[in-house]
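Database export, one record per block. Field names are fixed; values are copied verbatim from the stored entry.
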Amino acid sequence: MKYLVLIGDGMADHPLAELDGRTPIEAAATSAMDRLVTQGLTGQYCPIPEGLPPGSDIGNLSLFGYDPCATFSGRAPIEAANQGITLAADEVAFRCNLVTLADGQMRDFTSSHITTEEARAIISTLNETLAKEFPVAFNTGVSYRHLAVVPNSAAASDDALAAAKCTPPHDITGQPYEGYLPAGDAAALLRAMMDRSREILADHPVNRDRIARGLNPATSIWLWGQGRAPQMDTYANLYGKTGAVVSAVDLVKGIGVCAGLQVLNVPGATGYLDTDYAGKVSAALGALETLDVAFIHVEAPDETAHQGRTDLKIQAIADFDSNVVAPCLEWAELRGDTRILVAPDHFTLISTKTHAGGPCPFGLFGPGVPVGGQTAYSEGVAATSGILIREGHRLVRAFLSDAAIAL
């Protein structure tokens, strides 16, 4: 049997007054997901365990079939794995956003979705300057998403860096940032690096060019999501299966690396509305000719919700449906031996521009999947199904079994 996991990052949301009480999923054109559910079933699962922060790191671990309570050590070290960075026992990796701070507020946690080429020039400058003044090494990622690796010896104690309280910048869009700067025993070091980055980037050539083009400059680094190297078993050991991952973001690809899966890099995968959907689908379906499992992760619903753009989130969901779910469903229907799981990894709320926990809707299709009788995919329909999987990783474990699925 073949297995396809299709992830619409942050796709779930709450009903919105501007949509007459509908969610963005309910307002979007989702004929493929509706057809998938009609031929299979829908229900709810909890990707974010009680007590853990709602984020793509936790939610995607659940969607890969890992218990986040046992495997999560921080977001940045997972991204480091995808970049080929091997963390020493005495090193902590931090996620390093290039952000726009202005008038005391977090103006833009993406610096107007700065390009990777522009970001590479900035990261190079930081390694030539900031990294000579502080014990830190910067590594270029994609767009605004980068990494900083700091040795434990730089802080007061071995646990100070990992234990620092750091706020994700996407949680405070449009808010004063002063109260959300790093806290704890390592706060002075982390704040000093962030403050110094503002001085270095104030007149950077990339920023001068972006301002001239009416785009937000990258005025500062923002450190968060830190942790030590994760300890995860491979898919071969856990499930006896081979697989591949297609995503634009280092986090999801890093989970794939840690899981021992192949990471398929699609040049046109951007993590936004302009991503190469056809290229991602082609890569995943091609891999399934020889492998067992393929993950296709789409970031656009999450990014647009962080912007507070209801119209763009609806577009992102519709694009995911027509450009990813539809061709995958057609492929699976022709083969007859393929299961599909469609789900978000968490809620990303238009109302708050950030993540939230709670039961998310999933859709299942394929051999061994009972027909549930629902005819649409949405948060509301899933809530009426009577199916609620409280430990989210168990959904994927059931999905990947060769036996008939009983939920």
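Remark 1: Residues 310-335 form the longest helix (26 residues).
Remark 2: The radius of gyration is 21 Å.
End of record.
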